[in-house]
Amino acid sequence: MLSSPRLAGNAVSRRRHQPTRTGIRILSLLALAPVFFAARGCPAATDHPPESDTETRTLHGRVVGVTDGDTLTLLVDREQVRIRLAQIDAPEPDQPHGKNSKAALSALAFQKKARVEVVDVDRYGRTVGEIFIDGIDVNREMVREGHAWAYTKYSHSTEIVALENGARAEKRGLWALPESEREPPWVWRHTLRPARSAPGPLACGTRSYCSEMASCEEARFYLEQCGVGTLDGDGDGIPCEALCATTR
User: Fold this and answer.
1) What confidence tens digit (pLDDT) does each residue in 81-95 have?
2) Which is the catalytic residue, given 15, 62, 126, 183?
């Protein structure tokens, strides 16, 4: 029995609107594309950026050097990392109690295993963090014993301020000095810079930070003639990048 032209046309129309096997495969691949790219590590457009490593990073190592009362060197997997103790500021080596502060940090940390909770990297390339040794919060202990100030410019911790107040009341550490000798390190660094910038012959001293250098010339002298390696944090032979960037 022959079908009518109208019936034949309807059948053809239905076949045209039915998806072919190839079409079904393409649709399936398109549906799986987001899963594929997610597995390949491609973030979606709405993903938030990952957190900075310094926000969650923890370092484990052994303390192999102490520069002063708030800076030390940690050996991590055969790599030396300079650590600046967060939230505190210790007297500079040239200040009253500077050598005592360094000795106190050495007693707490030198040649001991330490855990560092990283919070930042400062402009000198030093890792800034909270240091823990044998269950002791070294940053707070230095303030509690009167060997460092609470660095309120970079810390809003009321606990550290309270520890400083306690050390001051008990006249521990630097707080036993006459008031005229108890100048905050950040004030000392600022007021002493003009004196350091005066012309005169260069000579090796106890300075070891870029913040203590008056010029690139002085920084190069300390690095090359005095062997102060802390001025060249990245080991490229150029000290104090901020001072010497224009002299390369």
Assistant:
1) 999 999 999 999 889
2) 126
